[in-house]
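Below is how a single chain appears once it has passed through the pipeline. First comes the sequence as given, then the structure the pipeline wrote out for it. We keep one example in the README because the format questions we get most often are answered faster by looking than by reading.
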Amino acid sequence: MIEENVKKLLSEIPEKNGFGEKVTLVAAVKLQSVGDINRAVAAGITDIGDNHVQEFKEKYELIGGNPRRHFIGHLQTNKVKYLIGKVDLYHSLDRFALAEEISKRSLNAETVSDVLLQVNIGEEQSKGGFAFEEAFAAYKKIVAMPSLRLKGLMAMLPFSDDLPLLVKLAEKMRGLFEKVKDFDTNAEHLSMGMSGDYNLCLDAGSNLIRLGTAVFGQRNYN
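Resulting structure:
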């Protein structure tokens, strides 16, 4: 099933979005077995995203095919040390304290960490991220931190059946991304879209989508 899912997704997802930007599919591997992750990579997945540091540590050396490694979940500052030099892109930079910790750890390790600023576009209390109104100012502050390279923005749309609202929020994120791109030439990623809403997000201008169920099927939480 995984191989069929990957083949179908890679054939259906456009190579570029409507803004002419390359679209990247990140397979969200939370709670997936090493075997299933390796099957997805062998089938054509080039990028994988972890949600939990412990899982990342346990599986890091066991994943074949050399996919690009993303960290897409909430990250505690005391666990940053386990990821430095191993993660290609951090999606969930959701607060200044985390930015400062990744900056410090990266500087000490003599490396540069690529990160995305997380925006709480739906103003949801259950989700982290900078408020939309504060995001651009936060971006300008964080971009000056040493050993950090801000590569764009990340957002999660609310779980809602209100399609016009979701389209409005996705387009609002694209507008903020355009503003960031005008300010910072390193900004290249708008990470927005999961298995239930990625087509909507791509239509709005996302260029990086994070798919778990669409790749692996329903997640087993047991």
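The beta strands are 24-28, 47-50, 68-71, 89-93, 113-120, 130-131, 148-155, 189-192, 208-211.

See the next section for the split statistics.
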